[in-house]
Design brief:
This protein is mainly beta. The protein is built from one helix and eleven strands, in the order E-E-E-E-E-E-E-E-E-H-E-E.
Length: 132
């Protein structure tokens, strides 16, 4: 059974940090890249970062660049999203999703993150609340 499980969400004050984890199972981890999305209340889901198992230059949306860092532990089939200097605007449900590496390579060459329709597997999300 394919599973992506997010963890690490919670309540934090503005300026604080959280580290989210996304652990994958049921598929060959190296064949996929992992993207992080978030959906704030009343807003559309937004892609914020993605990384392949061999990426040296992960993608970051402008809204999180310089504050969030994505990393990959291939031995644990886990991708992390370190979120620093959090702002109330970061309040959202955070999802991880898996994109075929062959498709991710094209996105990486274009220095973009493809929309969610290119992602095959999804986790259920973890909630992050940043208080002011």
């Amino acid at each position: 059974e394919v599973q992506l499980v997010e963890s690490g969400g919670g309540l934090v004050q503005a300026g604080g940090s959280l580290r989210l984890s996304c652990t994958a199972s049921g598929f060959i981890f190296d064949d996929y890249a992992i993207g992080w999305f978030r959906q704030a209340p009343g807003q559309e889901r937004e892609g914020i970062s993605c990384i392949g198992s061999k990426d040296s230059s992960p993608y970051y949306a402008d809204s999180v660049k310089g504050r969030f860092t994505v990393s990959c532990d291939n031995a644990k089939n886990t991708v992390y999203l370190q979120m620093d200097n959090l702002e109330p605007e970061d309040t959202a449900i955070y999802y991880c999703a898996a994109e075929l590496s062959t498709i991710h390579e094209t996105a990486q060459a274009l220095r973009v993150m493809f929309p969610e329709r290119e992602y095959y597997y999804w986790g259920r999300g973890t909630r992050v609340i940043v208080s002011s």
